[in-house]
């Protein structure tokens, strides 16, 4: 029974679910299944995706529809799916529509690339990546790269990130590119001209020979301001022609430039602003100058204002010429529509004159009225202009703050660049726009705005905006970033303007696509520079072009959005593989450890997840770097001693990791992207620490980084996927990586040094550590040490680090040889669990020690053996398994075979049995301390909890704590079965043998292996269960199977016999057990509901049993047990009735009128559904009460065939049943009044209707009796007279008996009774005819208010329905809308006219159908109350003590009959109606499926409160709810 391990994920689709900001990551080779959620089941849903069909190329704009697969091919939609076989990396969109809606939900999936390295093209897993960033310009000529890149190889990196290799702009910044298509000429030495092909050859050589992948940046957001191509194509940038909204910002920018020049020239020194700004007074002077001289002179508000005079003149002309302009009184504040000037000129905005004429209308066309109207219009325009003035002033305030803040940072701040005095090369503030012209006056510059040939070359620089919305383009209209000076500007770049599509800027799109294709051709991956500021649709298109060339493109990006949700937008749309995260963002070691835990891996001891499981949201795969090339220097921010321990913490993360060149060499300053021109050092194993330009393992922390990189790659490659982070103290972080198959661990203990130990006093005390398991070796121990006291000298040619620091490292040593560990004591916890206590003596700041830990030998053997036995459930356990030297006999047989001998009654014990059932057997369900009691004593009780915990790895759950703390739960599972003996005892032995291994492994592993054992056994039990059921179940959907398990849940044999004994003459009778000195039959009985009606006298109810029997027993194939239950109840027939509360027969109550008719319906169903089912009619029935006054008779004392018992029931009814309950009084029912004990059931010979009851009792399923105050002893729903469902059941029975007689299977054609001194014979065919003729005439409430058959037209409040009863003592009760007529529709559909039935079902659907159940009363009824509270102890007659039990709360079982009726009559109305009805049915059933999935009881409840709200007084799982739902699926 080993199951396949193909990884499949299931994504449920729900109406209106937009998941564009949810990340779903999958690997190549996975299968993705889209399934319908409950809101879409039964509907015609179409799923589209742009994932390419097999053999087709990817086009992100081309979507295709997926085909639906229905494994069962019928019934419901819960198993229907469409699938994708994921073989191509990238980001893919899906959307789905329903009916007329093209899109009712959508989202993305991201498929990871597969990276291959080496001559053999072996896979480099993403979590194995160790990357190092290089500034390409510091590598020198291309033929020298290998020597410099070898440093990465020799220190264990397997990926190199190169900053852009293109020709740089004037600033020489790595990211300011002059020509995206040209290789940097600096890479070609004199006499050579290297090309992109040469770069590609080097990259490929590194991939094959060094097993090293190379990636590089792509920069889409800007180009160097001096790029020749943008001079030729200025439309590619944001200029004053294509972006005139930037004009006010440009005017301000030029004014600031001239101000800066004046300050640099000393023109404002006397006013308190010298060239060298040194204090806050100078900043205040700058603020003053801006407000006193700059802003007033610029009059920027005029760009937003309307020319009042022009507008008023135009308005006046329109008023005088428009004959319809007069009519309403002028005045008030009117809404005007301002039209913005597309050229953004001063006073260029205008007013929409249509809105003006609508808002301002004169009384008449007189000159005075027109002038008055114009004056009001003028006043409103002046108000608008004032508002514009205020808005611009607000922008100016923000600009002032930003200007001052920028100057403070650049000139005054200790952590800033401290630029010194203002000069023309170093102006007060960075210019926001290019100015490719000779110097001129400000006034001359202003003339350029109107000269398009010059204005088009004034381009906006790029930059970034702190705290801005990353999804917004800050250069587009509507943004005021440039005007408010909020941009942190890169003055060497021009921001690129793509537009919305390639047609908007053809040259730019083509140019950048070619750039992308060159990059993808030669590099395995790209880093998206400045990703959040680049238009998403542009990067989408470029990456699509890149993936067309390199399908497994590796894409990384830094996002800086501050929100994982916004990160997901970028990851989803762009297919980003890894998001760069930096350890430098951590302010202390605790945060650094938290980042390790956050960015990958599962908790240690996690549960094994199934290969087919729901697709859950993920966080973006991380590339966790100890420092990025844009971070500040860690040595300056922290200390030189922290480089090694922080690297160790990062290396232990279960994700891609890495660093930046210079970190490992301990370069004590930031390597500037703009200013650095020196070369990186080369690798020379013989070099001395003092040699400039060369490095080896004696340099910096290179030796430590080599060991850590190797360890990181080993842990990922060998499956150390579980992570635990322990904050030992404020500076010490211990990170554990654990392998879930071998259960080896690697524990890295790092003592960080965020503060310099040479100046900060660290504590000498180091807390001891307790490491579970056996320490095999010290993988490495290392510390940063100072070897000389020389001062740092920056080399002129090479990027050099601190030569006086190095790493002292020892690798693969025994614990006893460690210089950091003082003492290691082995302790043993309970159960033989090994723990080693580690005492440290030299774990100084800047030190690390890494332990390799295994289970102790005994635990290794036990776990390996356990995994060996678990292989029968999943091949995942093969890895790490061991063949045991000896095996208990019970484990030599597969569990599947052990369980093959269990009956379905045994399965009831193995899987279920709620607490009252367990207590009846002398036990009880397991109680988890500090939490709650499990729902079942069997495996389902455990599974309901573990199914919730497993996907979330909720190892902190009280359930898991209980397993770790002791063997109580483990022993409970096996001992409970062992005491049963027989086949169940054998299963108990299997558990006991498996648990003997489990008890002696480390306790932190107990939850995951307990889950594996129980899950495997549970799945095996279910498979064995379904094999014993009907083909309908075996080939049915998941919903069919779950409902069929209700049969196992409800049907069992308890210690107390629930049913009376059957005749000893019966063939194939139930087996007998010796109990208390005599043999008792073990007859399976059917519980009414869990937990309230599951044990003792309250387990078996006639009505509930026979409502549920068809669905739970006949349809599931449990024919013999169904026969026995039918015969057992037949034996209790008395007065012509079978009991409602059975009480083993001896304590039966014959107080219901409907149970006997449900029993008769089940006999009919048995004869119809079971092969040779009519043979049951000949079976002997052992009558417990041969006469009405008999005492209980022993089995076999009075036997008669079942057909005689049936005939007696029919004869008694026709004769008339009238008796008083035996033992009437408080001892039988403490609430009923005396009259209520009088039972009556008769047949009206005119109509053939069964009628009975009185207003003091309630003889149908709606049987709530008042218990409090005024309602005590009053039935809430007497339903006396002819209840509609009883009439329907009677009709079904007499029709069937007439047919049986014709077939020679039933000896009676008539019922003969005594009437008026003689015999009266009524043929069954005649009885059938009378009901048929009278039913609609008496039960249908016509839409015609003048219907002559209507006896009480004044009581009608719903038309087009069927009455709930006929002839009730309270006539208005007949007219109440309830769901009972649907039962008659199913059992006797011939009674109903199709059109009338369909109309009535429509009313029921609209008024009664709830999310799960059906309202038991019309919500329009005056006594409707939908909330059932049986504890409500007040004087409200209608609700006290749950009096409204059947006056509104929504019962589930009638839904089955409602849906079956809908299906039946829909067929008669044609294909279209039937298809719509099938959709409705599937949609309703989907809600039941969801409830079953989520319910810890794995059942459907008895009822809910109004609108599907949970009702705490309901049975959590009810037999008839499960049964009637299953019957719908059978009909479907």
Describe the 3D structure.
The chain is of the alpha/beta class. 33% of the residues lie in helices and 17% in strands. The chain has an 8-stranded parallel beta barrel with strand order 12-13-16-23-24-25-28-29, surrounded by 4 helices. Strand 42 and strand 43 form a beta hairpin. Helix 36 packs across helix 38. The radius of gyration is 42 Å and the shape is globular. About 0% of the residues have low confidence.
Number of helices: 40
Task: Summarize the main sheet.
Answer: 8 strands, parallel, barrel
Judged by helices, strands and strand pairing, the structural class is alpha/beta
First-residue to last-residue Cα separation = 32 Å
Count of DSSP E strands? 60
Q: Mind telling me the C-alpha Rg?
A: 42 Å
Structure in a nutshell:
The strands form 20 sheets. An 8-stranded parallel beta barrel has the order 12-13-16-23-24-25-28-29, surrounded by 4 helices. A 7-stranded mixed β-sheet has the order 26-32-33-34-40-36-37, covered by helices on one side. The protein is α/β, with parallel strands linked by helices and 1532 residues long.
How are the secondary structure elements laid out?
Layout: E1 8-13, E2 17-19, E3 25-26, E4 31-36, E5 45-49, E6 64-65, E7 81-85, E8 90-98, E9 101-111, E10 115-117, E11 122-124, E12 130-134, H1 145-154, E13 159-162, E14 166-168, E15 177-183, H2 196-209, E16 213-218, E17 222-224, H3 228-232, H4 247-264, H5 280-298, H6 308-321, E18 338-339, E19 350-351, H7 353-359, H8 367-412, H9 442-447, H10 452-455, E20 462-465, E21 487-490, E22 493-495, H11 506-522, E23 525-528, H12 536-549, E24 554-557, H13 564-574, E25 578-582, H14 589-598, E26 602-603, E27 612-614, E28 622-625, H15 634-637, H16 643-651, E29 656-660, E30 682-683, E31 694-695, H17 702-717, E32 722-727, E33 732-738, E34 745-751, E35 769-772, E36 774-786, E37 805-813, E38 821-829, E39 833-840, E40 847-854, H18 857-870, H19 895-899, H20 904-911, H21 915-920, H22 939-952, H23 958-965, H24 968-978, H25 982-998, H26 1006-1027, H27 1031-1034, H28 1038-1050, E41 1051-1052, E42 1072-1075, E43 1078-1081, E44 1085-1086, E45 1089-1090, H29 1102-1114, H30 1119-1130, H31 1155-1169, E46 1180-1182, E47 1199-1201, H32 1202-1215, E48 1217-1220, ...
Parallel strand pairs: 1-4, 1-27, 2-9, 3-9, 12-13, 12-29, 13-16, 16-23, 23-24, 24-25, 25-28, 26-32, 28-29, 30-31
Antiparallel strand pairs: 4-7, 5-6, 5-8, 8-9, 10-11, 14-15, 17-22, 18-19, 20-21, 32-33, 33-34, 34-40, 35-39, 36-37, 36-40, 38-39, 41-44, 42-43, 45-60, 46-47, 48-49, 49-50, 51-56, 52-53, 54-55, 57-58, 58-59
């Amino acid at each position: 029974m080993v199951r396949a391990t193909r990884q499949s994920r299931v994504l449920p689709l729900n109406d209106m679910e937009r998941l564009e900001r949810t990340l779903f990551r999958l690997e190549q080779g996975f299968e993705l299944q889209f399934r319908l959620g409950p809101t879409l089941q039964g509907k015609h849903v179409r799923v589209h995706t742009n994932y390419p069909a097999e053999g087709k190329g990817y086009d992100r704009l081309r979507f295709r529809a997926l085909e639906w697969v229905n494994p069962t091919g019928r019934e419901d939609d819960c198993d229907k799916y469409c699938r994708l076989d994921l073989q191509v990396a990238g980001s893919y969109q899906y959307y789905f529509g329903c009916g007329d809606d093209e899109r009712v939900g959508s989202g993305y999936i991201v498929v990871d690339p597969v990276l291959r390295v080496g001559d053999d093209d072996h896979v480099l897993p993403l979590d194995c990546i160790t990357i190092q960033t290089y500034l390409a310009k510091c590598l020198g000529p291309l033929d020298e790269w290998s020597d410099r890149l070898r440093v990465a190889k020799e220190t264990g990196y397997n990926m190199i990130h190169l900053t852009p290799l293109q020709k740089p702009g004037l600033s020489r910044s790595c990211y300011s590119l002059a020509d995206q298509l040209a290789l940097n000429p600096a890479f070609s030495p004199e006499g050579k001209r290297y090309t992109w092909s040469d770069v590609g050859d080097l990259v490929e050589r590194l991939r094959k020979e060094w097993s090293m992948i190379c990636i590089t940046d792509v920069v889409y957001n800007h180009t160097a301001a001096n790029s020749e191509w943008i001079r030729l194509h200025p439309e590619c940038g944001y200029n004053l022609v294509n972006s005139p909204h930037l004009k006010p910002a440009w005017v301000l920018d030029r004014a600031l430039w001239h101000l800066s020049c004046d300050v640099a020239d000393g023109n404002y020194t006397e006013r308190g602003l010298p060239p060298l700004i040194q204090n806050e007074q100078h900043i205040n002077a700058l603020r003053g100058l801006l407000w006193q001289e700059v802003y007033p002179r610029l009059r920027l508000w005029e760009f937003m204002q309307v020319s009042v005079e022009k507008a008023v003149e135009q308005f006046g002309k329109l008023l005088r010429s428009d004959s319809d302009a007069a009519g309403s009184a002028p005045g008030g504040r009117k809404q005007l529509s301002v039209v913005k000037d597309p050229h953004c000129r001063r006073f260029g905005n205008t007013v929409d004159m249509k809105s003006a004429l609508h808002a301002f209308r004169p009384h008449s066309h007189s000159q005075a009225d027109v002038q008055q109207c114009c004056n009001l219009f003028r006043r409103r325009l002046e108000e608008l202009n004032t508002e514009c003035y205020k808005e611009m002033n607000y922008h100016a305030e923000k600009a002032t703050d930003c200007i001052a803040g920028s100057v403070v940072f650049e000139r005054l701040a200790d952590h800033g660049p401290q630029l010194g005095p203002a000069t023309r090369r170093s102006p007060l503030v960075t210019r926001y726009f290019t100015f490719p012209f000779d110097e001129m006056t400000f006034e001359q510059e202003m003339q350029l705005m109107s000269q398009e040939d010059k204005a088009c070359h004034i381009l906006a620089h790029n930059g970034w905006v702190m705290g801005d919305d990353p999804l917004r383009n800050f250069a587009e209209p509507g943004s005021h970033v440039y005007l408010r000076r909020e941009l942190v500007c890169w003055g060497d770049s021009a921001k690129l303007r793509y537009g919305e599509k390639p047609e908007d800027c053809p040259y730019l799109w083509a140019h950048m696509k070619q750039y992308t294709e060159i990059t993808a051709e030669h590099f395995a991956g790209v880093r998206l520079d400045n990703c959040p500021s680049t238009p998403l649709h542009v990067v989408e298109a470029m990456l699509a072009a890149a993936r067309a060339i390199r399908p497994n493109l590796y894409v990384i990006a830094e996002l800086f959005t501050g929100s994982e949700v916004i990160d997901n937008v970028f990851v989803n749309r762009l297919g980003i593989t890894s998001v760069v995260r930096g350890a430098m963002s951590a302010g202390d070691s605790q945060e650094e450890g938290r980042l390790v835990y956050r960015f990958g891996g599962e908790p240690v001891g996690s549960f094994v997840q199934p290969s087919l499981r729901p697709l859950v949201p993920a966080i973006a795969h991380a590339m966790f770097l100890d420092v990025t090339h844009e971070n500040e220097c860690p040595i300056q921010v922290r200390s030189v001693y922290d480089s090694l321990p922080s690297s160790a913490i990062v290396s232990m993360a279960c994700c891609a990791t890495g660093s930046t060149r210079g970190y490992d060499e301990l370069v004590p300053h930031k390597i500037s992207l703009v200013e650095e021109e020196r070369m990186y050092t080369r690798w020379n194993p013989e070099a001395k620490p003092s040699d400039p330009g060369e490095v080896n393992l004696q340099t910096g922390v290179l030796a430590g980084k080599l060991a850590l990189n190797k360890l990181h790659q080993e842990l990922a490659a060998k499956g150390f996927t579980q992570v635990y982070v322990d904050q030992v103290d404020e500076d010490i972080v211990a990170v554990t990586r654990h392998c879930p198959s071998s259960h080896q661990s690697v524990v890295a203990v790092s003592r960080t040094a965020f503060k310099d130990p040479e100046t900060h006093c660290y504590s000498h005390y180091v807390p001891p550590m307790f490491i579970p398991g056996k320490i095999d070796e010290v993988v490495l121990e290392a510390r940063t040490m100072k070897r000389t006291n020389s001062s740092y000298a920056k080399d002129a040619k090479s990027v050099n680090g601190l030569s006086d620091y190095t790493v002292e490292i020892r690798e693969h040593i025994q614990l006893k040889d460690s210089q950091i560990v003082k003492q290691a004591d082995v302790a043993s916890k309970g159960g033989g669990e090994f723990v080693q206590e580690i005492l440290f003596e030299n774990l100084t700041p800047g030190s690390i020690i890494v332990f390799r830990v295994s289970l102790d030998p005994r635990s290794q053997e036990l776990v390996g053996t356990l995994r060996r036995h678990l292989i029968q459930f999943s091949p995942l356990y093969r890895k790490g398994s061991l063949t045991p030297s000896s095996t208990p006999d019970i484990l030599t047989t597969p569990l599947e075979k052990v369980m093959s001998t269990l009956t379905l009654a045994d399965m009831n014990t193995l899987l279920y049995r709620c607490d009252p059932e367990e207590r009846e057997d002398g036990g009880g369900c397991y109680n988890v301390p500090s939490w709650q009691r499990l729902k079942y004593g069997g495996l389902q009780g455990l599974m309901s909890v573990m199914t919730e915990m497993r996907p979330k790895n909720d190892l902190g759950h009280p359930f898991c704590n209980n397993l770790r703390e002791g063997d109580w739960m483990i022993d409970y599972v096996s001992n409970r079965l062992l005491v049963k003996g027989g086949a169940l005892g054998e299963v108990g032995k299997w558990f006991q043998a498996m648990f003997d291994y489990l008890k002696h492994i480390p306790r932190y592993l107990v939850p995951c292996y307990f889950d594996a054992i129980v899950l495997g056994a549970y799945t095996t039990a279910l498979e064995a269960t379904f094999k014993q059921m009907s083909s309908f179940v075996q080939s049915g959907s998941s919903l069919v199977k779950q409902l069929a398990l209700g049969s196992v849940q409800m049907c069992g044999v308890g210690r107390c016999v629930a049913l009376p004994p059957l005749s000893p003459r019966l063939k194939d009778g139930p087996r007998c057990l010796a109990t208390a000195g005599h043999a008792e039959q073990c007859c399976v009985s059917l519980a009414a509901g869990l937990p309230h009606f599951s044990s003792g006298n309250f387990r078996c109810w006639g009505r509930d049993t026979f409502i549920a029997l068809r669905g739970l027993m006949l349809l599931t194939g449990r024919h013999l047990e169904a026969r026995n239950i039918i015969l057992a109840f037949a034996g209790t027939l008395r007065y012509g009735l079978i009991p409602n509360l059975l009480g083993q027969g001896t304590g039966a109550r014959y107080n219901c009128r409907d149970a006997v008719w449900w029993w008769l319906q089940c006999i009919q169903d048995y004869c119809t559904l079971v092969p040779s089912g009519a043979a049951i009619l000949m079976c002997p029935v052992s009558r417990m009460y041969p006469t009405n006054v008999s005492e209980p008779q022993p089995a076999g004392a009075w036997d008669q065939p079942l057909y005689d018992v049936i005939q007696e029931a029919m004869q008694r009814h026709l004769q008339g049943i009238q008796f008083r309950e035996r033992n009437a009084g408080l001892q039988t029912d403490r609430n009923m009044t005396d009259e209520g004990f009088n039972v009556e059931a008769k047949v009206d010979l005119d109509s053939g209707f069964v009628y009975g009851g009185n207003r003091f009792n309630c003889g149908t399923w709606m049987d709530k009796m008042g218990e409090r105050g005024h309602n005590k002893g009053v039935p809430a729903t007497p339903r006396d007279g002819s209840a509609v469902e009883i009439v329907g059941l009677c009709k079904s029975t007499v029709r069937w008996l007439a047919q049986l007689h014709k077939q020679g299977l039933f000896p009676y054609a008539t019922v003969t009774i005594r009437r008026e001194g003689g015999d009266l014979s009524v043929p069954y065919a005649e009885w059938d005819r009378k009901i048929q003729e009278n039913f609609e005439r008496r039960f249908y409430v016509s839409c015609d208010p003048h219907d002559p058959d209507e006896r009480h037209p004044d009581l009608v409040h719903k038309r087009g329905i069927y009455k709930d009863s006929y002839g009730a003592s309270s006539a208005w009760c007949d007219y109440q809308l309830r769901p009972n007529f649907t039962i008659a529709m199913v059992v006797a559909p011939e009674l109903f006219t199709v059109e009338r039935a369909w109309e009535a079902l429509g009313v029921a659907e609209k008024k009664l159908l709830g999310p799960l159940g059906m309202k038991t009363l019309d919500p329009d009824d005056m006594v409707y109350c939908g909330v059932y509270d049986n504890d409500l102890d007040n004087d409200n007659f209608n609700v006290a003590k749950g009096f409204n039990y059947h006056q509104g709360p929504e019962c589930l079982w009638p839904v089955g009959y409602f849906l079956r009726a809908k299906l039946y009559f829909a067929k008669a109305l044609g294909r279209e109606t039937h298809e719509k009805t099938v959709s409705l049915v599937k949609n309703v059933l989907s809600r039941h499926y969801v409830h079953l999935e989520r319910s810890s009881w794995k059942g459907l409840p008895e009822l809910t409160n109004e609108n599907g709200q949970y009702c705490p007084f309901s049975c959590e799982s009810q037999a008839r709810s499960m049964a009637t739902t299953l019957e719908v699926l059978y009909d479907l």
